[in-house]
Amino acid sequence: MNVDPALRDQMLAAIPSLRAFAISLSGNVDRADDLVQETILRALANIHSFQPGTNMPAWLFTILRNLFRSEYRKRRREVEDADGTFAETLKSHPDQIGRVEFREFRQALAQLPAEQREALILVGASGFSYEEAADICECAVGTIKSRVNRARSRLAKLLAIDNVDEFGPDHATRAVLMRHDT
Amino acid sequence: MQPDAPAPKNASGLNREIQAKIGQQLRAIYDDVVQEGVPDRFADLLKQLDKPDKPSEEGRTE
């Protein structure tokens, strides 16, 4: 197989983000890596249809998403990890985000409809523009925008339930205040 | 008397804070994976292309 080294480098560079997206779709690291592998093979087999100078990450994301969707349709339903997408990948979190908060966030994320979660991740985490995300999801830009908006407000609502405690200035201060109260 | 300091119902302010938090957490979990870089498995897969040896029809499975 003859692949321009420059294209190969572009593919390599896109893989870390592609994996993160795959995990967000499948909720499982092993399946995600299989998806990435399939995506690479598919991309190599179709490399002639990639136009140099266009967006390699977006092209790969599109392939991966399509693979996932056709596979998903086949497998139908698998038990979703109750702890939510990304549960397995959790390790070192930035200090400013608490463990509890993180778990609640993942659980909230898992409650979003797949299309909303996907749109939110493409735009909010992968760093694609609305236009690029629309290309990847093969839908209108306006559709992506509304999915992202709905995802955001749904998440806000889910997380706001515990807002006072979880998002308040800090837990400890409140605890101290309460103690003084008695 | 002291009003019971209600949570700022003032949606916009609170909302903005939550939205910022959402963005931050979203990127944090995503970047956890991104920072793992390219697993060997994929690097090897793409590196194989460098080798001039043509894959036989059947391919060889190890």
What's a concise summary of this model?
The complex is a heterodimer of chains A (182) and B (62). With 182 residues, chain A is mainly alpha-helical. Chain A has helices at residues 5-26, 29-45, 56-75, 99-111, 114-124, 130-137, 141-160, 163-167, 171-181.
- Tell me the Rg of chain B in angstroms: 26 Å
Class from secondary-structure proportions of chain B: mainly alpha
The ordered H/E elements of chain B are HH
Judging from the principal axes of the Cα atoms, what is the shape of chain A?
globular
Residue share in β-strands of chain A: under 5%
Helix content of chain B: 40-55%
Oligomer: heterodimer
Q: Which regions of chain A are unreliable across 5 or more consecutive residues at pLDDT < 50?
A: 163-169, 171-177
Strand content of chain B: under 5%
Distance between the termini of chain B: 79 Å
Shape of chain B: rod-shaped
Query: Could you report the average pLDDT of chain A, rounded to the nearest whole number?
Result: 82
Largest interface: A-B, 44 and 32 residues
The level of helicity of chain A is: 55-70%
Overview of the molecule:
The complex is a heterodimer of chains A (182) and B (62). With 182 residues, chain A is mainly α. Helix content of chain A is 70%, strand content 0%. Chain A has 9 helices and no strands. Chain A has helices at residues 5-26, 29-45, 56-75, 99-111, 114-124, 130-137, 141-160, 163-167, 171-181. The longest helix of chain A has 22 residues, at 5-26. Chain A is globular, with a radius of gyration of 19 Å. Chain A starts with a helix and ends with a helix. Chain B is mostly helical and 62 residues long. Chain B has 2 helices and no strands. The termini of chain B are far apart. The model of chain B is unreliable at 5-12 and 56-62 (pLDDT under 50). At the A-B interface, α1, α2, α4, α5 and α7 of A face α1 and α2 of B.
